[in-house]
Design goal:
four-stranded mixed beta sheet, globular, 5 helices, 20% strand, alpha+beta
């Protein structure tokens, strides 16, 4: 994200409690449309989520699995990650059929990739190196 977009995201975060959320969202979309940066919206929203989680002393974590986890499974995953990071998290779960199976955990600039897709890729690379 460029400086202007970060500045806009910071403005949104700083004014969340002071301005009606609907009005703030309208202003945000208007500015992005005017600057022809509407494609920046997903990364902008992700930045805002990260910043708000951090302000609450939490870490934003993206968790990808092949299929939807049950509430119980989600809670176990959250507890395990919080234990590893020694910090409360805000978990954002998504399904991704391309991973075939397993789990992928992303936070900050870190990725823990325990997916079948990644294991197969590593095996392929290892076998290719032996030939």
């Amino acid at each position: 994200m460029n400086k202007a977009t970060v500045k806009l995201a910071d403005y949104v975060c700083d004014n969340l409690g002071q301005v009606e959320i609907k009005l703030l969202a309208q202003k945000l979309l208007l500015v992005l449309k005017k600057q022809k940066k509407i494609r920046a919206l997903p990364s902008l929203l992700e930045y805002i989520e990260d910043k708000l989680a951090s302000a609450q002393g939490k870490k934003m974590v993206k968790i990808s699995t092949y299929n939807e986890l049950t509430s119980e499974e989600k809670e176990r995953v959250i507890r395990a990650i919080e234990h590893k990071l020694h910090k409360k998290i805000v978990a954002k779960f998504k399904t991704d059929e391309s991973i075939i199976g397993g789990i992928k955990i992303e936070y900050d600039e870190e990725t823990i990739d325990l997916t079948v897709k990644n294991r197969l890729k590593r095996l392929k690379n290892k076998l290719a190196g032996e030939i």
